[in-house]
Amino acid sequence: MADEQQTEAGTPKKRLGEIFVEKGILSALTVERLVVLAKKKGKRFGTVLEELGLVTPNEFAEALAQQHNLKFLNDFHLYRYPDELLRMVPFKTAMEHYLFPLKMQDGKLAVAISDPQTLDLAKSLAEKQGLVIMPYIAARSEIMLAIRAHYLKSASAAPRDKKCVLVVEDDQAVREFIGSSLKRKGYHVVSACDGMEAFREIVSVRPDLVITDKEMPKLNGYAVLESVRSFPETAKIPVILITSTATVDEEAAALRRGFFDFIPKPLREATLAVKVERALSMSEEY
């Protein structure tokens, strides 16, 4: 994160680590170690913090709001929003960048964002419609709840006589291999080519198991996991991660985040069958 000590809205005033130490959420030593880890991995400090699950989504969002001199907002998914307002931010943009339109009044468009780096995009959307942006910071999970409730307007999932597996994979050959393998085992298979499409399927289909690739061009495997965990009715669905690059440390971190298991690439049909059966049988016990 940037080190600037400025006060303009959207401009960082202090480091995230300092804020968490001041709030008593993290120790100074933990922050130092996380900074070293972030540099080693070539990732942002906040990204590593989220991956390790050391702070809650709201704690992270509140710290970002304080860092960038913006207001924090929560529970806005409970309110009603007219379709005219929702059209101000296209669904694809809302999903891909975690943006949600809150209110339009007196030439101003209030939006919730999860990452201040999307502020320029939000400003551009508002300016194209002759409006001035009013940004608020919110947790990604809260924005996803709002998108689900107001863009997708999801209904209850239809009953089915087969276990349903959602396969999220951008590689068509791999996606078809997994799908055909599972169908031969008697499962109902639903496919998605990226995390954004997976979000829709999770809400509408409510699968019994999700298998997702780690790296995808839009929303990645971690975002798919977050989609599943965001809603009470899908929170207990097991999620298996497909990966070809994960180190032992990365696998341990992913398990701590909530993935049920891993399937390494190249995929083997026997391994796939065993891990799917295990995930589904264990989920029935809870």
TrEMBL record:
UniProt keyword terms in alphabetical order: Phosphoprotein
Signal sequence, start to end: none
GO annotation terms (biological process): phosphorelay signal transduction system
Superkingdom classification of source: Bacteria
Location of 4-aspartylphosphate modifications: D213
Pfam families named in the record: MshEN, Response_reg
Residue span, Response regulatory domain: 164-280
Keyword flag Phosphoprotein: yes
This protein's name: Response regulatory domain-containing protein
